[in-house]
Each structure stands twice: as structure tokens, then as C-alpha cells.
Input
Amino acid sequence: MDSIAERLQATQNKISDLVTKADRTSNEVRLVAVSKTQPASIIREAFMAGQSIFGENYVQEALNKQIELIDLPIEWHFIGPIQSNKTHLIAKHFDWVHGIDRLKIAERLDQARSSSDRQLQVCLQVNTSNEPTKSGVLPDDVMELAKAVAKLPHLKLRGLMTIPEPTSDEALQRERFRLLRNLLDEINRNGLFLDTLSMGMSDDYVIAIEEGATIVRIGSAIFGKRRPKSQV
Ligand SMILES: *Cc1c(COP(=O)(O)O)cnc(C)c1O
Output
């Protein structure tokens, strides 16, 4: 099997090719390497290969690894579901949070961050599949949430994030990503200046980039199949 360095390089190359080919307004696509369930040694290996942005889903697991990696200037993104009793730890130990879907969570993150810290960079998670069981704010409610979150002093609202339902139907994938982009445009027409579309994972990032993603969150395409959680 290829090394992590090789797979990172291949992924970066593919992203650059897609950006060049796609008709996009922004040329920037940042790669968040999703390292959930991977041990700190693997993150270190990826860092040494040039990757400095990592995404984690589970607070305690991430904190354990951050202690081991304290010597590395990593930008940490929290991409998992946010429990309200974990907002304090998330606000203190991460640079970005992607999964905000209600005001109460945003307010708690805001309160936990102090004025001397850099603002916490945040995205709102949108339920683009309109499935009642999925997390994320519904498309109709995004504008109101965005306006409220944008007012919180210790947060910097950067944009929108989505995890569409898994499907092999490319037209449907495209439709979900396009919906997210249209929502971002609509919010910006209403006076905010959001620059981030966090969309695309190992199986669908090609389409996400064609549709305007500025952050892709990729795990298994870089690190291989995930380990069972108990091994971490
Ligand atoms: C696990 C995860 C990813 C990465 O998924 P892969 O399919 O391994 O690329 C991206 N985003 C979120 C929110 C995740 O939970």
C-alpha cells in the first residue's frame, strides 16, 4: 500500500487539478485531514509530510492526541456532533468548529472563549438532505441562525458545512452541494461576508470541489480504513 505521504500528495494533486479545471470563483481549497481513530503517531507522520490541518470528531480522543502533539503547530478542526456539556473543551482546544446547528451551542462556545484568544472560526452545519433524523439546521432556518451567530463577539462565522446522505447518485450529490452554495450566496446578499463552504469527504470531494467547496474534509482516502475506536 502507498505511504501516507504518497496518499496526501496524490490527494493534494487531485484537488489542484480539480480547482484548475472547475469554473470557480475561489481558487482556494483547504484540505482538512480527518484523523479520527488514528493514533498521534500517524498524525505526526502526516504533519512531517506537510499536512498541518487536522479534523477530529470526538473530544476526549482529540485532547489525548493534542497532548502528544503539543510540539507541532497544528490547526485543529472539530467536525463532530457538539454536545452542550463539551462546548467548553471544544472552544478551548480547537481553532475551528464545523458543526454548529443551533444558537444555544454557539452561545456556549462564545462564552467559553475569552477576548484575549483569537476568535473561534465556525461554520453552521446545514441539513441539505432535509432528513428529519439528520443533524444540521434546515435550509429555511439558516439565515436566521447565521445572523444571530455573526453577532457573537468571540466567534468568527466563516460559512456553511454539510454532510449529505450517502448516495452513489452523482446528480443528487451535486444538488446537495449546490444547495449549500446557494444558501451561502443568499446569506452574503443579506449583508454577511462568509467565505467558507466545508463540503466533500473521501467519496464525494470531486463533485464538492466542482460545486465550490473551499474546505474538504478527507479521512480514509489519506489514512486508509478507520480503526475501531477501542484501539485508539
Ligand atoms: C469522518 C468524517 C469525514 C471524513 O470521512 P472520509 O469518508 O473518511 O473521508 C469528514 N467529515 C466528517 C464530519 C466526518 O465525520
The domain at 4-226 is CATH 3.20.20.10 (TIM Barrel).
